[in-house]
Each structure stands twice: as C-alpha cells, then as structure tokens.
Write a structure and sequence with these properties.
mainly alpha; five-stranded mixed β-sheet; globular
C-alpha cells in the first residue's frame, strides 16, 4: 500500500528536549574555540589582520589592504563587523577576543536559524506523520519541535562544522547568512515579518560576505520552487507576497554586489578541474558531513514520493536545493571545505527527516558506533594530555613533543576542571541514552552531537596551549622581537598575509614593503621558493642575520636580514 507519508510517529515519540538543556548545549559548543586562544594560521589570523588594520585607521574600510595586499576572500561585511567590535572594545578587551564577539553571534544565529527553518518545514501538511485509525499520532506542533531538535543535533554533530565555524573569517559569516536565508524561504508562509527580514537580510548578507553568486542562485531557485510547487489550501495564501519578498532579497543582493564590485570569477574550468585531487575531495565529503550524509541519503529514499511526484513538497525540495547548490560550489571552487560548510544547515534538515523512519536496529547501530568512536577520541585526548603533563605514558608524550618541538606543557586548573566536568557529562549522557527516553525520535542524534561537542571542548581546554603553539605565529614573532627589539620600521619581502598580520598583532610591528621609504635597518623575507633571484635581497645592501624557524611546520621559516652599514 502506498502511504502518503513514510513517517509513522506516535505522540510519545515526540517529547521535546528541555529548552534550557538545548540552550546550554549550544553555548557549550559555541564558546570553546572562540575564547582563550591566539588567532590561528592561516585564514583566521589573516582576516583578523585586516580587521585590526581597519580598526586602527591604517587602511580604508571600503578597500582594506595589508602592506598593499587585498584580502583573498571577497566581502566587506565580516571585516566591518570585526573592526567595529575591536574599536568598540578598545581599552576594554584584547583585540583578538573583541573581533570574535560578532562571530559568537553569527554562529549562534546559524544554529537558531537552522532550528526554526526545519521547524517550519516539519509543520507543512506533506511532512506530517501518518494519521492513526484510532488517534494517538504525533500532534503537528510537537512533531515539528522534535524534528527541529534532531536537525540542530545533526548540525552540531557534523565533524566539519567545529573548526571553520569558530574562525573569524568570511566563511563563518556566510554560514550564518545561508542558514538565515534558508529559514526565510522556509518560514515565509508562517512568519510574515521575521521570514521577510530573514530572506532579505540573509541573501544580502551572503552577498556582502563574499558569495554574491551563491546568493543570486539560492534566491532565484527558491523563487522558482515556490512558484512551481502546487499551492496548498490554507497555507501560503499570500502567494505573491512570498514571491515578491524572495525576488526583493535576490535583487538587493545582486545590487549590493554590483555596487561594491564583489563579483569574481571563481569557477574552475574543465582544464583546471582536471588537476584536482578527486580522492581527497571524496574523503572530504565523507568525513566533513558525517554523520548527516547517511541520514540524508536515507531521507531521500524514504521520502522520494514527496520529491518526484506530480505534487512535490517544499519540505523536501527546499533543503535539497540548498544542499545541491553548496555541493556544486564545493566541486567547482576552492577552497572546497569552506564551500561545503554552507551545505550543513540544509543537510542537517534533511538528515532530521530520516529520524521518524529509522528502524530500531539502525538507531542502535548509530549509537554503538558513536559511543565507540567519540569515547576513543576523548580517551586519546586525555591520554596525550596526561603524557604531556607527567611524561607517562612515555610514547604519548614523545609523539606530542615530536610534533611540537620546544613546547613546554603547562597545567591550567580551570581548563582541567572544565574538561573533567565535560567528561562526566558525557558519561551521564551515555547512561541516559541507554536508559530513558528510548521512544524520542531524536534519540539517535544525542550521542553524535554530544560526542562531537565533548571532543571539541576537550581540545579547546586540555590541548589549547599545544594548539596555540602549533597553529599560531607567536613563537616566530617572539623570536624575531628578541633579535630586533622594537625598531622604528621593519620591511618585508614576500611575506604572506597571515605572516604580516601575525607580526603586526603579536609584535606590534609596523611593516613596510621592501621598496618603501625610508629604508629600514631590518628586512623580513619569506624563506620559501616563490621569490626569483632578481626579487631576493641585494647582497650588496643586506646580510643574512638569522633564520627564524617555525618549530611546528617545516618550510614556513622567516629569514631576517640586516642592512649593511655604508
């Protein structure tokens, strides 16, 4: 028998997660990684360098540069937000922490927008579970809450979300605005004001964050989907208002991108795409979106009649469209991981619709795999940390020191207590999952989301000093500062954006180009092979003073030259 919906859900299976617990869980995921660390290599410190220069008045807000170099990532809005926060908190807060404040809000916005987008999708009549002959099926509002809870857990569980979403880069802003636009196009039939603001603000913000083409495609595609799908009685009554709002948001995004000159050709042509490492790209797709992608595939299979029928449903078409656009950008642009990040909100929404159709054996398999995987990862983090602190086990300590030569471990009581508390919560969560609330449809995503958040928090507490040592330029800048003290000027030749930003922030140096006047007594040169023989320092005027090695990464050395006395 062909059922109108594959979801068979009783009212007992849609009990809600406590709001306070869900909120605390999101805070515990968002805060670690945005506080207590130095800017990391390379996009993170590079974006921060432009924000700092803008806040200090060293470059234009409309055309920011670092020693004459423009940002690699287009889009001015993320830099404006970071620079404004630095200026507002000047004298009250470290610039690196101040710059992260807007990105706290952006990551939180991405989580909230994803929840509400899926909530509105699950409220649609085509998404509702099968009605029972004698009643007892899930009520529409409770069912939508449970599906939305599952989507938020699926989003947090995605392994690729953790690092990139905690950086102060245009990618984080794009993630937030994609999720906002996703919520807007899903909610226009229910929330007139907030839905309209979300569509217009999301598409415009996406364009201003460096993805105008994506904004135009998402807006145009959403408009066509709303236009071509059949009208449902009692819902989306003001059809022209919905279409007009999406059209307005799309036109605004296109106009802003044209006014500010944000259009860039980034599509890889077939000749260029042939040089891509497709095996690495396949591995990226597998681990970056885990565990959402298997659930998404299951959703597409079980809900296929709502996709390919004569009356397709928007609760399937809209998230599928957003995922396909982001996947297309992943396959045709670089860097691939930052393009794939934009698929996660809609991907999590599709994954959540698999929950009411999963068999108990599949849910148990997910639980056991997640339990073993994340418990093993957490145990490794603890073992290596103990090895760094005590020297036992010796092999763990030796491996850590081999990756970070010269690193000296230090003990932080607050970090240890937070990590210990998080570990106890993980143990309680495993016990809770094994005992109570077995009927809740979102139960299969509790351990994946909890395990991802737990391991991320362990890394951002126990391993934070090690990660700062490995991933920042603090050591290199400190070693250069020891040699040159605080010179009146310091010239650079061939340094990358992240290196320039690191010297300006960590060392408070004011770098000038190699051809700048007046001529400085010291010159910093990138040690890689990008500079030709004619571009290297003239031996008649410069002598090599020191080779500053970055201990954690080979081939990232800095050559320090001193001007010869006439």
């Amino acid at each position: 028998m062909n059922r109108p919906t594959p979801a068979i859900v009783a009212q007992d299976a849609v009990r809600r997660l406590p709001r306070w617990a869900l909120m605390l869980f999101c805070i515990a995921y968002v805060v670690p990684g945005l506080v207590g660390r130095a800017p990391w290599n390379s996009a993170d410190i590079s974006a921060f360098g432009y924000m700092l220069a803008m806040a200090r008045g060293e470059t234009s807000w409309m055309d920011p540069t670092l020693v004459g170099m423009r940002p690699e990532a287009d889009g001015l809005l993320p830099y404006w937000l970071g620079a404004a926060a630095i200026r507002a908190m000047d004298g009250w807060m470290d610039p690196a922490l101040a710059a992260r404040l807007p990105f706290f809000a952006l990551l939180g916005l991405a989580l909230v927008a994803t929840w509400y987008a899926v909530y509105d999708l699950a409220r649609r009549p085509q998404a509702q579970p099968l009605a029972f002959a004698f009643g007892g099926e899930a009520r529409p509002s409770d069912y939508a809450h449970a599906i939305a809870d599952g989507s938020l857990l699926a989003l947090i569980a995605c392994l690729g979300l953790a690092q990139l979403s905690h950086e102060i880069t245009p990618s984080t802003a794009q993630l937030a605005f994609v999720a906002t636009a996703f919520f807007g196009v899903c909610a226009l039939g229910y929330w007139r004001v907030s839905g309209s603001l979300a569509v217009v603000g999301g598409l415009a913000g996406l364009a201003l964050s460096g993805a105008p083409t994506l904004a135009a495609i998402l807006g145009t595609g959403s408009l066509l989907l709303h236009l071509l799908t059949p009208r449902t009685p009692g819902q989306d009554a003001d059809r022209w208002r919905v279409l007009g709002t999406i059209a307005l948001g799309t036109l605004l995004a296109v106009a802003l991108a044209s006014l500010l000159g944000l259009w860039r050709w980034r599509i890889l042509l077939p000749s260029d795409a042939g040089s891509r490492d497709w095996s690495s790209l396949a591995r990226l797709l597998l681990w970056f979106t885990w565990p959402a992608w298997p659930l998404m595939l299951w959703t597409l299979w079980r809900w296929r009649r709502q996709i390919v029928s004569r009356t397709p449903s928007l609760h399937m078409l809209l998230p599928l469209f957003f995922v396909l656009v982001a996947l297309g950008a992943t396959l045709t642009t670089r860097p691939s991981d930052r393009a794939l990040l934009l698929a996660l909100p809609a991907l999590a929404g599709l994954a959540a619709f698999a929950l009411p159709t999963l068999q108990r054996s599949v849910g148990s398999l997910i639980d056991w795999f997640t339990l073993l995987f994340f418990t093993g990862c957490g145990a490794i983090i603890w073992i290596i940390w103990v090895g760094m602190q005590t020297g036992f086990p010796r092999q763990a300590a030796t491996n850590a020191m081999r990756q970070a030569p010269g690193f000296e471990a230090s003990f932080s009581l607050p970090a240890f207590l937070v990590a210990l508390a998080a570990t106890l919560v993980w143990a309680w969560l495993v016990r809770w999952r094994a005992g109570r609330h077995r009927a809740a449809i979102w139960k299969s995503l509790v351990l994946p989301a909890g395990g991802a958040a737990w391991c991320w928090l362990l890394l951002m507490t126990l391993w934070m000093p090690l990660l700062d040592y490995v991933r920042s330029y603090t050591v290199v800048v400190r070693n250069v500062g020891t040699l040159v003290r605080q010179p009146e000027c310091l010239q650079e030749l061939g340094l990358r954006r992240e290196q320039i930003a690191a010297f300006q922030y960590h060392g408070n140096f004011r770098l000038k180009g190699a051809s700048a006047q007046p001529r400085c007594a010291w010159l910093l040169v990138n040690a890689d092979d990008r500079l030709g023989p004619r571009e290297r320092p003239d031996p008649q005027h410069w002598e090599l003073h020191a080779n500053i090695r970055r201990p954690s990464e080979k081939g990232d050395d800095i050559l320090l030259y001193r001007r010869k006395r006439p």
